[in-house]
Amino acid sequence: MKGIVSAVGNLRFGSRACVVLMMGATTTTALHAQNFALLHSFDGTDGYGPLGTLVQATDGDLFGTTQYGGVAWAGGNLAFGTVFKLSPEGKLTTLYSFCPPNGGIDCPSGDLTAGGLVQAIDGDLYGTNSQGGTFFPNVGTIFKITLSGTLTPLYVFCANKGGACTDGASPYAGLVQATNGDLYGTTEYGGVNTCPGPTGGCGTIFKITPSGILTTLYSFCAQRECADGYFPEAGLIQAANGDLYGTTYAGGASESDG
Q1: What is the pTM of this model?
Q2: Boundaries of domain holding 75
Q3: 151 and 123 fall within a common domain
Q4: What is the SS3 string spanning the chain?
Q5: How many CB atoms lie within 10 A of CB 5?
Q6: Which end of the chain is more exposed for a tag (fewer CB within 10 A), N or C?
Q7: Which of 75, 99, 123 is the last residue before a domain boundary?
Q8: What is the pLDDT of residue 108?
Q9: 132 forms bridges with which residues in the sheet?
Q10: How far is it, in rounded angstroms, from Cα 86 to Cα 128?
Q11: Boundary (domain end) residue, out of 65, 81, 99
């Protein structure tokens, strides 16, 4: 299944996702008042497997990402993901295809975009890639992209080039812009503490300026037996008190249940 776009959420079944973006219009809370409209069905060349939510930009269009597909799509070849815009009426435009055929195996701009996008106060969109980059073992990037499709990589993880990825690895979720103007997010792996994982780290919380300066704020499994959790897959929110809140997939005091 290549995924369906309509507009209200996403469903993830196993390793292959049938994603439905649904448009629901209601005048009351009664179920009979809901209407559904199919806006777009992906075919691989325009993307495949959108996992993140959509964001409506100030121009009125909706913007999102696909984890696979794009210009390198060739049947069974999954390619490496896209950024797209979608009009409320359902016209889809692919703005960017990650790791085009001439990009090499390292995908310097990143690939496998699982999280959605956020529009910052400067008007540009910001997002993450869980893989790719210019530093081995190619564990993700942070990028910005204009509404017209000009993409700029802002940060490449594992920047110490030593394989330990103390700055984090594999940002799976999207970003949030806080009231101070900086962007905040999580990486599922990496950090300074030892933990079972493909990059030897338990995950991090970071902030990054719109110009690309990254600061690692916290490395998980800093407490005994990872009581503080590890492997944060979801993003963060900023609450009314100004603090950031989030979750970890594993770790904690109750049999590593997160």
Answers
A1: 0.83
A2: 1-99
A3: yes
A4: CCCEECCCCCCCCCCCCCCCCCCCCCCCCCHHHCCCCCCEECCECCEECCCCCCEECCCCCEEEEECECCCCCECCECCCCEEEEECCCCCEEEEEECCCHHHCCCCCCCECCCCCCEECCCCCEEEEECEECCCCCCECEEEEECCCCCEEEEEECCCCCCCCCCCCECCCCCCEECCCCCEEEEECECCCCCCCCCCCCCCEEEEECCCCCEEEEEECCCCHHHCCCECCCCCCEECCCCCEECCCCEECCCCCEC
A5: 26
A6: N
A7: 99
A8: 78
A9: 139
A10: 19
A11: 99
Give the pLDDT confidence score for residue 12 in this predicted structure.
Answer: 34
Same-domain check for residues 83 and 127: no
Per-residue tokens: 144: 């910005």
Q: What's the domain count of the chain?
A: 2
One domain for residues 215 and 178: yes
Largest CA distance in the chain: 58
Tokens for 222? 């800093």
Angstrom distance (rounded) from CA 242 to CA 195: 30
Let me know whether 123 and 235 are in one domain: yes
Query: Which residues share a beta bridge with 80?
Result: none
Q: What is the pLDDT of residue 119?
A: 98
Q: Based on the domain organization, do 65 and 109 belong to the same domain?
A: no
**Distance separating alpha carbons of residues 78 and 67, to the nearest angstrom:** 9
- Check: CB of residue 79 under 8 Å from CB of residue 140: no
Q: Which among 6, 107, 106, 89 is positioned nearest to 50, based on CA atoms?
A: 6
| Same-domain check for residues 88 and 114 | no
